[in-house]
Amino acid sequence: MISGHKDTEDVGSRKNSMKVKLQKTDSYSAEGDASSEDIARRLKLDKGLGFLVRLLDTRVNVLYERLTAQNDITPRQLGVLLTLYQQGTLTLTELATHIRVDRSTLGEMINRMAERSLVSKRSNGNDRRSAEAQLAPAGKSVLLKIVTGAARLQVALLAPLAPEDRAHFMRCMKLVAEPAADDADRG
């Protein structure tokens, strides 16, 4: 159990069967018995997960640019290049699933990457409404130039944690980032 978090309660959702766990913190009551003014007085921004995630995102981006020595390929674009390198040709729907972005966002990103000759995009022969993406030679070259720096990113990010805490931290991050995947694995 993470310190500072007590009294976990399950709250059912009417729209789906996923259970969301609310946790009481020292900042405010999750029970709904406090007024909005009371919550606004006691809520601590620097103890909020959203605030900390934003700080972590900023740190990730700064370290990513420093460790990869570039700012042309974003972390999401790296995800596309790496996935296509490892998986080969994929439909945009398959690629979107792999890198956890919505299909329309990915479509726009793939078009921009194709304009830069990092990937090639073609109609899927099996389904003319769908498209496939493939890593282009220039994309492979860019990937291989920055992948070592990108791999060092996780080491740099986890450096403040004791070695024995790193795996636990990663498990907790995954639980928070992908709760539905975790629920599906359990049942």
Poorly predicted residue ranges: 1-29
* Rg, alpha carbons: 21 Å
Helix-strand topology string: EEHHHEHHEEHHH
| Estimated structural class | alpha+beta
Strand content: 5-15%
| Coarse shape | globular
Give the fraction of residues assigned to helices: 55-70%
Major sheet strand order? 3-5-4
Instruction: For the record, give the distance between the C-alpha atoms at the N and C termini, rounded to a whole number.
Output: 22 Å
Question: So how many helices?
Answer: 8
The chain-level mean pLDDT equals 83
Q: Sheet bearing the most strands, described?
A: 3 strands, antiparallel
Oligomer: single chain
How many strand units?
Answer: 5
Labels describing this entry:
alpha+beta, disordered N terminus
